[in-house]
């Protein structure tokens, strides 16, 4: 191949990459305000961040970040944002706790998910119309007497750069502890619960 051909092949490759990157960024630019998002827009936005989320959280050495996408999804997908700073959320539960979690029990003071349950919740939002990744929120169920102040839960988080997030146990549990009829769980919005 002569030099000119090589150069034009290279130029074509660059142009093709630029076009697909541009198409991607156009498809991932959203005009709507978050509270007005339709389910179709919520789903389209998730497509934009689906691969980016585990890659971002997994950039450090967090053990949950490395594996949570192999766990069961606790919802059909993200719902319209509510708590957790107006972010879109999507929750995964490890095998130990999955079946118990997706009963979404919320009317039983004695309900407990098994010790060893780990729950990971992705979060992301929009900044200037473009997706912006938020923390991965994590809850781990230990024996209640191992962490009595938080009813047996240990809270943690991973920043979007993969580094651990400083988490105040009392800050998280001041809110989660209010869900005393569901073992401190808030659960995904009704419209995205499995089997609805
Ligand atoms: C103001 C109340 C509030 C605070 C503070 C809060 N959460 Fe939550 N959290 C919720 C609600 C409500 C849900 C369920 C919402 C959803 O997933 O759609 C939830 C869900 C979760 C879940 C999924 C398991 C579940 O409850 O169904 C995890 C994991 C989680 N939060 C971690 C944290 C961590 C870690 C912190 C502290 C950094 C925290 N949360 C602080 C209200 C709160």
CATH fold name, please? Chalcone isomerase
End-to-end C-alpha gap: 60 Å
Overall mean pLDDT: 90
Highest-level CATH class: Alpha Beta
Q: What would you report as the Rg, rounded to the nearest angstrom?
A: 20 Å
Q: What count of structural domains? A: 1
What does this structure look like?
- The chain has 196 residues and is an alpha+beta fold.
- It has a single domain (31-192), classed as Chalcone isomerase.
- A hairpin with a 2-residue loop joins β3 and β4.
- It starts with a helix and ends in a 20-residue tail after the last helix.
- It has helices at 3-27, 39-49, 52-57, 63-67, 83-86, 95-101, 169-176; strands at 72-73, 88-93, 118-127, 130-133, 136-141, 153-158.
- Heme C (HEC) is lined by residues 82-84, 89, 91, 119, 121, 137-139, 155, 157, 167, 171-172, 175-176, 185-189.
Main features:
about 200 residues, alpha+beta, Chalcone isomerase, six-stranded antiparallel β-sheet, 7 helices, 6 strands, binds heme C
How are the secondary structure elements laid out?
Elements lengths: L2 H25 L11 H11 L2 H6 L5 H5 L4 E2 L9 H4 L1 E6 L1 H7 L16 E10 L2 E4 L2 E6 L11 E6 L10 H8 L20
Q: What's this, in brief?
A:
The chain is of the alpha+beta class and 196 residues long. It starts with a helix and ends in a 20-residue tail after the last helix. It contains seven helices and six strands.
